[in-house]
Design brief:
The protein is of the alpha/beta class. Helix content is about 35%, strand content about 30%. The strands form two sheets. Strands 6-7-8-3-9-10-11 form a seven-stranded mixed sheet. A four-stranded antiparallel sheet has the order 2-1-4-5, with helices on one face. A hairpin with a 2-residue loop joins strand 9 and strand 10. Helix 3 runs parallel beside helix 5, helix 4 crosses helix 5 and helix 5 runs parallel beside helix 6. The structure holds adenosine-5'-triphosphate and magnesium ion.
């Protein structure tokens, strides 16, 4: 269960894209808090602003206005060097397209983020093996991405996010390329990992059923939060 300790605090967040004369309010005044150990789904239809929001939380893009406080740090004030360090040390990413290195096997793919942290080879391998066991891929450690199914590749992607033992994991449509059975398996795995490791997980999805696996659903429409539900209960209606 989540402790009442905020790890993400978003206040009055705006992201306005200018396209010539036109302005797109991708985020139009968003505020919320996520506690440690929560599994939160950000739900909305295409173009509602989900990826834009996730990119701000992950420090991939700066907001037009407002603040993003993660683990006690105001990342909207960070310069590019600080953002690189923030992404490296505090957050893990799971991508829809897996983004694995085709020439590397599962262990090497999972170990890769640790090389950027300067962890030595034997420890890298040990941690990678542990993370792969956690996602149930013990038998596939020597396989390259092309020698694995989509679901197995995404498990490697999850292990790669876990290996850094990040405070927060961000996932943008992590099961977008998988069939419905594999999708359920991956969501159960994510649920289980969040519970066991007390990791915070923020997952973007357009799918209400997938969002139902989360402890909480933040619904977003036209760059605004329209509902915030926890365990089926409506908490706020903004
Ligand atoms: N770099 C950009 N430049 C201009 N407009 C952008 C940019 N990125 C996003 N937008 C616009 O901001 C709005 C929100 O986009 P966003 O990608 O966050 O939506 P989304 O909810 O992730 O959609 P999807 O489910 O299709 O991935 C859209 O209207 C989009 O066209
Ligand atoms: Mg998106």
């Amino acid at each position: 269960m989540s402790e009442e300790r905020p790890v993400i605090e978003v206040k009055n967040l705006y992201k306005i894209f200018k396209l010539g004369e036109q302005k797109v309010r991708a985020l139009n005044g968003v505020s919320f808090t996520v506690n440690k150990g929560e599994f939160v789904a950000i739900v909305g239809t295409s173009g509602s602003g989900k990826s834009t929001l996730l990119n701000m939380l992950a420090g991939l893009e700066g907001p037009t206005k407002g603040s993003v406080r993660v683990a006690g740090e105001n990342i909207e004030k960070y310069n590019e060097r600080q953002l690189v360090k923030y992404r490296r040390d505090h957050v893990g990413f799971i991508f829809q397209a897996y983004n694995l290195m085709p020439t590397l096997n599962a262990i090497e793919n999972v170990a890769l983020p640790l090389t950027f942290r300067g962890v030595d080879k034997s420890l890298r391998e040990k941690k990678a093996v542990k993370a792969l066991k956690l996602v149930g891929l013990k038998k596939y450690m020597d396989h390259r991405p092309t020698e694995m199914s989509g679901g197995q590749q995404q498990r490697v992607g999850i292990a790669r996010a876990l290996v850094l033992e990040p405070e927060i994991i961000f996932a943008d449509e992590p099961t977008g390329n998988l069939d419905s059975v594999t999708t359920e398996e991956i969501l159960h795995l994510l649920q289980d990992l969040v519970r066991r490791k007390a990791t915070t997980l923020v997952m973007v999805t357009h799918d209400n059923y997938l969002a139902s696996f989360a402890d909480r659903r933040i619904r977003i429409k036209d760059g605004k939060i329209i509902a915030d539900e926890r365990n089926g209960e409506l908490q706020e209606n903004v």
